[in-house]
Design goal:
Blueprint: H1 2-29, H2 45-51, H3 55-65, H4 76-89, H5 92-98, H6 101-108, E1 118-125, E2 128-134, E3 140-145, E4 156-162, H7 170-182, H8 186-192, H9 195-202, E5 210-216, E6 221-228, E7 234-239, E8 249-254
Antiparallel strand pairs: 1-2, 2-3, 3-4, 5-6, 6-7, 7-8
């Protein structure tokens, strides 16, 4: 009997030990380990708050990187200048806001033009304003406007570019210089010759009708004499090796050389 009581006691104690171990294990498993509060792809709320920029900082950054506000001038002169400025800076979105698609395509035909455009004049042709601009190379941009759209988007309806070209023949080169002189295009005159030669002639009345004769000299200089119907001859010296390029007119003579 004593032995049976001892065995029963031992079994009861063992059962209590197992029960206590089970309770202890269940209690430990019911709590998440403390390390999981710092592991994962998303930072804690306090960390996220410290990393994220404030609303004012984000707004300031967005404003500094955003496009500048485009305005629509109310005069043809200013509107044309705005278009050519946008075109020169490569801002195609602004160009498309200022001109109709036909004019946009006309501008896209020309690449690598000098970007320094100067206003020359405006006139009205049948109620449609038209303005002329020139750059430092004498290239001309003639813009036409829908007058009712000034102050609003897409007022430019036409954008014609007349580029400066360089003849390969000395006589044609000299004639192009005189034609630029007739048009008052001093920038193109300087491109064909030099600033000093352009200044010499641009202050004088340009000849109307002209015919030319050429004489080739031993040093590769072609002397082109342009006879005029209303004044004395214009004599220009064209360097043969520069035909087809800029600044081929290297000298001149007044009346006779």
């Amino acid at each position: 009997m004593t032995r049976l009581r001892t065995l029963a006691t031992t079994v009861a104690v063992a059962g209590l030990v197992l029960a206590a171990g089970a309770c202890s294990k269940q209690s430990a498993d019911s709590q998440s380990p403390s390390v999981t509060t710092t592991v994962g792809e998303s930072p804690s709320a306090s960390t996220a708050a410290s990393v994220a920029p404030s609303a004012s900082t984000a707004a300031s950054s967005a404003a500094s990187k955003g496009p500048s506000t485009l305005t629509f001038p109310t005069t043809a002169k200013a509107y044309g200048s705005a278009l050519l400025s946008a075109y020169a800076s490569g801002s195609s979105s602004h160009v498309e806001q200022l001109a109709v698609q036909g004019a946009v395509l006309q501008l896209k035909d020309w690449k690598n033009l000098d970007t320094h455009w100067t206003y020359i004049s405006c006139d009205t042709d049948g109620g449609a304003p038209r303005c002329l601009y020139r750059n430092n190379n004498g290239d001309e941009a003639q813009l036409r406007f829908n007058e009712s759209q000034l102050g609003h988007p897409t007022a430019v309806t036409e954008a014609l570019i007349n580029p400066t070209t360089y003849a390969n023949n000395a006589a044609d080169y000299a004639n192009a210089f005189v034609y630029a002189w007739q048009q008052g295009n001093k920038q193109r005159m300087a491109r064909y010759s030099s600033s000093s030669i352009a200044s010499h002639y641009s202050g004088k009345n340009a000849p109307n009708g002209i015919t030319s004769t050429s004489t080739t000299e031993a040093d590769g200089i072609v002397t082109v004499t342009l006879s005029t119907s209303d004044s004395g001859p214009v004599i220009l010296k064209v360097k043969s090796s520069l035909s087809g390029k800029a600044h081929a007119i290297t000298g001149y003579c007044d009346n006779a050389c």
